Amino acid sequence: MEPDNGNFRFEFVANRTDAYYTFLLDGGGNDKVISRFVLNQSSLQRYVWLQQQQAWSLYWSLPRDQCDRYAQCGAYGVCDATASPICGCAAGFTPASPREWALRDGSAGCARTTPLNCTRDGFLPLRGVKLPDATNATADASVSLDQCRQRCLANCSCLAYSASSIKGGESGCIVWTSPLMDIRQFQSGGQNLFIRLAASDLRMNPSSTFLSSPF
């Protein structure tokens, strides 16, 4: 949403203790806006009241496309709304359920081509993506990205890492120890995600950042 569009003022706050989104209705007097917010199992919608028409009008809604749906392409799947089909697997992964994948159901996600070895693993970047669900991830803003890499490499349970801040360059650290869920590819913007792969998969994909696996 635009930060100030004349009707609503939006603000996203993220600091060491909080992360939250707020909105305020703008205007006053004759310019007063009446709005209602609708949340259900499948969508998020905001309506505004049009006095002249005496009716509610849809102001905006989510999801905007298929990739807005949570875990559309399953674990280790990458959703790209501009591609057809929209689901692909990150380099080093293949469809976990080829039959469902062929029918364009990517919800089962992707499986590793080669199991991790822990002592001989490395990382391959996915560039320009929405980072995975961070519900069970761990963040530390006090370390550098290189320190983050070393920390993840030393932990056999660590599956991926990324910078926790991209303001003025990449810094800080987020590490994931559970399967990577809800990754989305952007055409511009996004962040870099470094996924742990076995050494043999790194040799097969020395510079690849994304491997499309069609349905």
UniProtKB/TrEMBL annotation:
<dbReference type="InterPro" id="IPR003609">
    <property type="entry name" value="Pan_app"/>
</dbReference>
<feature type="domain" description="Apple">
    <location>
        <begin position="118"/>
        <end position="198"/>
    </location>
</feature>
<dbReference type="InterPro" id="IPR000858">
    <property type="entry name" value="S_locus_glycoprot_dom"/>
</dbReference>
<keyword id="KW-1015">Disulfide bond</keyword>
<protein>
    <recommendedName>
        <fullName>Apple domain-containing protein</fullName>
    </recommendedName>
</protein>
<dbReference type="Pfam" id="PF00954">
    <property type="entry name" value="S_locus_glycop"/>
</dbReference>
<dbReference type="Pfam" id="PF08276">
    <property type="entry name" value="PAN_2"/>
</dbReference>
<keyword id="KW-0732">Signal</keyword>
<dbReference type="GO" id="GO:0048544">
    <property type="term" value="P:recognition of pollen"/>
</dbReference>
